[in-house]
Amino acid sequence: MKITYLGHSAVKVEVSNKIIYIDPFLSGNPKAPITADQITSADIIIITHDHGDHLGDAFSIAKRTNAWIVSQYEITVLANENGIQKVEPMNIGGPISVEGIKIALTPAWHTSQTGGPTGVIVQALGKTLYHAGDTGLFSDMKLIGELYKPDIALLPIGGRFTMDIYQAVKAVEFIRPKYVIPIHYNTFDLIKADPEEFKKLVGNLSQVVILEPGETFNY
Ligand code: ZN
Fewest Cβ atoms closer than 10 Å to its Cβ: which of 13, 75, 80, 203? Predict the structure, then answer.
């Protein structure tokens, strides 16, 4: 499983010969290492919620690449209204299989205009990734840890709209992933956070992997 950080909460996941984008916010993302139109190939695009910094370029990339849009029901309806037919509607609950990749939506404590916000579990080749979306801390993260045993957790640490570094440490305690990749910080002044301080606080609970935009983590 290869995870490339695209800044903010945007990631590219390559696994099982498939290319997955989660929350591909590139246009208007000052940290994005690539532009949306540089993405010419994708199989699946997962959207955690409809805020502009997450929905981002999802629809234009889907149109160009013919990738599946996977999201909660209301966002797939929005995709339909934007001329995209290739959608996999779902909701918080049991996993579905798309192109051989297992995908489940998890709760997220946040807001949104189109349906509810979510996090997402992506499983393939016996490896499990959890992208928390935008969320505050919640104790059911323990349940996510118990049910899916994520190897890698992508957790927002920027505060204000999501968990801050102290709350994200508690989330690591709840989820117990092998690796943690901090996301949703330092894109804008409003979500300033120190990932090195976060890493220090996590200590030996988990291995914190700080990725610069454009960097890839192989697992
Ligand atoms: Zn949001």
Answer: 203
